[in-house]
Specification:
Spore Coat Polysaccharide Biosynthesis Protein SpsA, Chain A; 9 strands; 267 residues; seven-stranded mixed beta sheet; globular; alpha/beta
Length: 267
Amino acid sequence: MKTLVVVQARLGSTRLPNKILLPLAGQPLLLRMLERVKAAQSNFELVVATTTDGPDDAVAELAKGAGYDVFRGHPTDLLDRHYRAAKAWGAQLVLKIPSDCPLIDPAVIDRVLEHHLAHPADFTSNLHPATYPDGNDVEVMPMKVLEQAWKEAKLPHQREHTTPFIWDQPERFRCQNVAWETGLDYSMSHRFTIDYREDYDFIKAVYEELWSAERIFGLSEILALLERRPQIAELNAKYLGVNWYRNHLDELKTVKPTETRQLEQKL
């Protein structure tokens, strides 16, 4: 089965523009994130899916220059971009991993994919409900299911976020979730993703403590670091639990209000 990991990446973030080019251990954040994905032991091909917008020429050049395949597609319709990338590569199984997960643990990718291969379904992820620290996002779907979503999804949030059409209809699609094997739920208490400057400060501090050219540090090492140096966790603590769900609670049937948090308003 030809398996393709699609990493969506663009420069036009409204909250933190050019975030994927910010430096981490001497390389742009995107390349550090891709080396973590590539370190997974599973058998897959990897493509960076950026946009056709002119500024994203830089993303395509960066990824190609580092030896990664690149697909360019719709700027805001992520469902279309993922589908067309998967179709171009002749994929039978598609993994969605966003580029705003620069601390993703390769072992988590392996675990979710292995679970799907052992227990085939229409959709497998570690996000519904999430238990891993935010920023370890892995979603797996057969190409035929992705194509079905691409053909039928109409709502803006279904197109923008790629997979809600699938996982928000469990009565129609056979969805399964891979929970963190520790039995803990750190999805709202630990934030390893990047949307804001404080997130970058956090990720940069983690890299400064743990990065090595010889090996990829994992989730357990990050958590141990935060135990030793809780001040690092404080760098982006005000954004804990803040995710895109907060703007669509009236549209999402399977997401509870406790799975997101609104941004605190400045007085």
